[in-house]
Amino acid sequence: MSRVFLVGAGPGDPELLTLKAARLLASAEVVLHDSLVDPRIIALANPSARIIDVGKRCGRHSATQSEICDLLVAEALAGHIVVRLKGGDPMIFGRATEEMDALRANNIDFEIIPGITAASAAAAGTKISLTQRNIARSLHIITGHGADGGLPNHDFCALTKTGGTLAIYMGGETLPGLAAHFIESGMEPSMPALLIENASLANERHLPATIATLPGLHATHAATGPVLILIGEALRESATIPHLETVTA
């Protein structure tokens, strides 16, 4: 029987947590959570569970990935029911591979509990479908920074030619470079772009722009919460979103 669960906490709104995730939290003996997991979700954990913040954000590490893996294995081998609570979905930029490898290496069974990822929450908050017939037939989820914290080594020309919608995670810091690379690769400077901060939460904020103007807009109205950047023709209607709109959940 599995005693370790890699659980997706979703984008933030506790009401978007899956029933299975909530049930496992309520029965957990140990919860290892990311920093961005909403406190209201952590509060759903078993009152007697040990709650351990192992999150990483903006280069400030409370635990290295190796330390997290070691802790996960140690708690499981001690016989505890462990929930590894990750923001969004564990399998999308959640560093799940390293943790699964560590568990497998120690013959520890585990389960993955999916969560709503930021792109889905952003689409819901903006009421814009990321795929649209004859406009955007594909969705590409990519990271906004490389392993060294700089620009990722994407094939920007190929991404530009797809004609689909781009969803860029963790791209706030590298947005100027990303925009420049896309434009250099042939993307029209007028391509619609949209930055969503705090998707699904009461203080959700939208910055509608173009790929050319979004970096400057973001610099003026710097986000303090997690951001997702959307780019593509499917966002053409984003011009109807009031500038700096706050969406009440």
Instruction: Name the CATH homologous superfamily of the largest domain.
Output: Tetrapyrrole methylase, C-terminal domain
Q: Judging by the overall fold, what is the CATH architecture of the largest domain?
A: 2-Layer Sandwich
Contiguous low-pLDDT stretches (5 residues minimum) are none
Task: Look at the helices and sheets and give the structural class.
Answer: alpha/beta
Mean pLDDT: 91
Straight-line distance between termini: 38 Å
Number of strands: 13
Helicity level, as a percent range?
25-40%
The CATH topology of the largest domain is what? Methyltransferase, Cobalt-precorrin-4 Transmethylase, Domain 2
Strand content: 15-25%
Helix and strand string, N-terminal first?
EHEHEEEHEHEHEHEHEEHEE
Primary descriptors:
single chain, 249 residues, alpha/beta, Cobalt-precorrin-4 Transmethylase, domain 1, Methyltransferase, Cobalt-precorrin-4 Transmethylase, Domain 2, 2 domains, six-stranded mixed beta sheet, five-stranded parallel beta sheet, 8 helices, 13 strands, 27% helix, elongated
What does this structure look like?
By secondary structure, the protein is of the alpha/beta class. The protein has 2 domains: 4-113, Cobalt-precorrin-4 Transmethylase, domain 1; 118-247, Tetrapyrrole methylase, C-terminal domain (Methyltransferase, Cobalt-precorrin-4 Transmethylase, Domain 2), CATH 3.30.950. It has 8 helices and 13 strands. The strands form 3 sheets. The chain has a 6-stranded mixed β-sheet with strand order 8-9-12-10-11-13, sandwiched between helices. Strands 3-2-6-1-7 form a 5-stranded parallel β-sheet, with helices on both faces. A two-stranded antiparallel ribbon has the order 4-5. The model has no long low-confidence stretch (mean pLDDT 91).
